[in-house]
Design a protein that fits this description.
With 419 residues, the protein is an alpha/beta fold. The chain has helices spanning 9-17, 37-48, 51-59, 73-78, 94-104, 113-124, 141-150, 172-191, 197-223, 230-242, 247-264, 285-294, 316-330, 344-355, 369-385, 404-418; strands at 63-66, 81-84, 132-136, 156-160, 274-279, 297-302, 359-365, 389-394. The chain has a four-stranded parallel sheet with strand order 2-1-3-4, with helices on both faces. The relative contact order is 0.14. The chain binds iron/sulfur cluster (SF4). The site of iron/sulfur cluster has 12 residues, from helix 6, helix 7 and helix 15.
Length: 419
């Protein structure tokens, strides 16, 4: 049986009807991927992954849940279920959702916009077909609290009990056994039966293959920093968690981009570049990314993806548990995975060294206790190390363009680094 046959039936059907990308005979590598077929295909694929499309899958009878789209996503897919990241709750029309949270649930205005957009959107979509929510007990406390409100709107909640490993080797066997038990409960909650181990193993293998390619693309961006801009790069990183619902099509696009950038790295565009590491999300979204690039800044280090693979030499549920604990120990995958606030700086520092970054752009969502602690720790740490860092705060609202202040700070920071 091929890997495709073991993937979710919804996405398999979509994949089978999707046009395949072919490798074109290469003559000379273009300097930029902006108009390449692969980047266009990536843009179209990302645009097709909308809330409407996701809800349509649920209306068609597929099992779809909110959450479960991070380290645990392969398990959810192996349970014939489509996991939808909470980020989809604030992708569009989030100011409206935030207003609902403040007016209907009386959540104070000073709470983080992520929380408000989440619960507001869940309320607005309460009559929709997606009625189940999965969350991880090690995620931020406000998320656990606010999701309780969704019970009043008829949602069903399931929590993976908190499990954290912040010291190398500490109680690892006990923790793995505990988390495996929690993951078995998830499978029972979703399907009423244990997970198909072969199916899960295939999902883990597929994810490892995708991440190997995506990491290679990120490495090649260091050689050819202007070839693939930040916007498609961030789409690749986000897509590597959910494949935009079309795993094989996504992999074809990744393959094409990899082939293109391998060629571009042989003869890259030569002009001054200021390598940067982005620690956190993109404050100001695509518009701020444009400002960075117009100033010759290139984000070569991203902390939003994991650097570990799922082990393929042990039972797959154990592999999922080890993957999570490894990520926590490296400060990776963010607050949703219970990553250590104190350990993320190691990853940032590794990226600074690897990319020879001249500075760090650090951002967090206004009102996020986790984000402000992480940023505070990193500010102190990198100040001592002599690595310049600019701090930004932002909301989750895509409708809100970057502020003049953010633009000015970023431009001035990059100009300072260029001197
Ligand atoms: S921004 Fe921070 S506090 Fe708000 S939901 Fe996200 S992790 Fe939690």
């Amino acid at each position: 049986m091929s890997n495709t046959s073991k993937l979710d039936p919804t996405v398999r059907a979509a994949v089978q009807t999707a046009p395949r990308l072919r490798r074109a005979p290469r003559v000379a590598a273009p300097l930029s991927a902006a108009d390449s077929n692969a980047v266009k295909a990536l843009r179209e694929l990302a645009a097709s992954y909308s809330l409407e499309q996701i809800e349509q899958w649920a209306r068609e009878g597929h099992s779809v849940i909110w959450g479960g789209n991070s380290w645990e996503a392969p398990l959810i897919r192996a349970c014939d279920t489509i996991p939808v990241g909470f980020a989809e709750l604030w992708k569009d029309d989030s100011l409206h959702a935030e207003a609902v949270a403040e007016n209907h649930f009386h959540i104070p205005a000073e709470f983080c916009s992520m929380i408000k957009a989440m619960i507001g959107r869940l309320h607005l979509r309460k009559d929709n077909a997606i009625k189940r929510i999965l969350y991880f007990g090690s995620t931020c406390e406000p998320i656990s609290m606010v999701l309780e409100h969704s019970l009043h709107d008829g949602y069903e909640l399931h929590c993976i009990d908190a499990a954290s490993a912040f010291k190398q080797g500490e109680r690892r066997d006990d923790l793995v056994a505990f988390l495996v038990n929690e993951l078995e409960k998830v499978a029972l909650w979703l399907t009423g039966k244990p997970v198909d181990q072969d199916r899960l193993a295939a999902e883990l293998k597929f994810k490892n293959r995708i991440m190997t390619k995506v990491r290679r693309i990120l490495d090649l961006r260091i050689e050819a920093p202007f070839y693939l801009s930040s916007l498609p790069t961030s789409a690749l990183l986000f897509g590597s968690t959910h494949y935009f619902g079309q795993p094989e099509k996504f992999e074809c696009i990744v393959d094409q981009i990899l082939a293109d950038i391998e060629a571009a790295a042989l003869n890259p565009e030569r002009r001054p570049a200021i390598p940067l590491v982005l620690a956190g999300g993109v404050a100001g979204g695509p518009q701020l990314l444009k400002v960075i690039e117009e100033s010759n800044g290139v984000i070569l280090g991203w902390v939003i993806h994991g650097t570990s693979d799922f082990r393929e030499d042990i039972p797959p549920l154990e592999a999922v548990a080890h993957y999570l604990f490894d990520a926590q120990l490296k400060g990776e995958l963010g607050e949703g995975a219970g990553a250590s606030a104190t350990l993320r700086r190691r990853r940032v520092e590794e990226l600074v060294d690897k990319t020879q970054a001249r500075g760090i752009i650090s951002s967090f969502v206004t009102g996020c206790p986790y984000g402000s602690v992480v940023q505070g720790l990193e500010r102190e740490y990198f100040k001592k190390k002599g690595v310049p860092m600019v701090s930004l705060e932002h909301s989750v609202h895509a409708e809100e363009p970057p502020t003049e202040e953010q633009i000015t700070r970023v431009r001035a920071f990059i100009e300072m680094l260029a001197d």
